[in-house]
Amino acid sequence: MKHRLLLAALLLGLCLPIPASVLHAAERIIDSRQQLAFAEHLFNQGQYRRAAEEYIRYTFFFPGDPDLDRVRLKAAEAHLLAGDGGSALQVLRPLTEREPLDAAAVDAYLLTAECHLQRNDPNQAVLQLNNLILLTDDPSVKDRAHLRIGWIHIEQLDWQGGRRALARITEPGRQRHQVDRIVSALDTADHLPGKNPSLAGALSILPGAGQLYVGRYQDALSAFLVNGGLFWAAYESFDNDLNVLGGLLTVVGIGFYTGNIYSAISSAHKYNRAVEEGFVDHLKHQVIWGSGLDDAHRRHTAGNGLRVRWQIPF
């Protein structure tokens, strides 16, 4: 009986008409514009990892599309903004190996440099930009590469390296990228207010004085109290014939005293580096970058690598 009911239900299902919506869904074809619009939507929403996946999906389904190079660049950019410079490099590699060099390859080289910067490898970033300079005959492209190399040196607090790279930019490029303004600001970098590490160490002969010199007031007070307390306790121990305890306290005190001197020297170096990094940040915000980057890069700066947004039109 059960088998007959099951057979009857199956026959009835086969006789019923299939809804048009189901047929329409089954016949739906992936549209390149819709696929790209979805990827762009995810990118604009800040869902960079998902956007990268959709851009890559686009390159698989539409390998002959004329916008394919732009889509690959957007996929690499999305990977970069998601913090995955390694995946971005894999996407960019076929573009950088292309001969002869075209506009997409140029952008790929520039993005490749940003990937290496994100991976804390500025030397490799500079190498890629120098390769681009050798491969291109376009003065404007050379200028963009020299400009980015200059900024990389500046970000590494290498003022002379930055000046040398900027000096290679052509006169039209100097005007376009405000190079003279950058160089003028770099002239002040050698005169930034700083602290002398040697003086900080010498002052630390009196515990806490070196930290006080570099403006670390709480550390200065702690160094003075700890070192003073240890040496006073050691003196009292020896005075009361507690020689073993006095010896132990003396050894510990010498360690803290040496640490107090090292801390003061280190604090002076950190102070100077903070001043120099603040100078670079101020310079970035004062100068409009002309190396293919837009103002949105400031919203994506994080850590040591520079995360950027590129304007890749469709």
From TrEMBL:
Q: Which UniProt keywords apply?
A: Signal
What InterPro entries has UniProt attached to this entry?
TPR-like_helical_dom_sf
Q: Which superkingdom heads the taxonomic lineage of this protein's source?
A: Bacteria
Signal sequence residues = 1-25
Q: What's the protein name?
A: Tetratricopeptide repeat protein
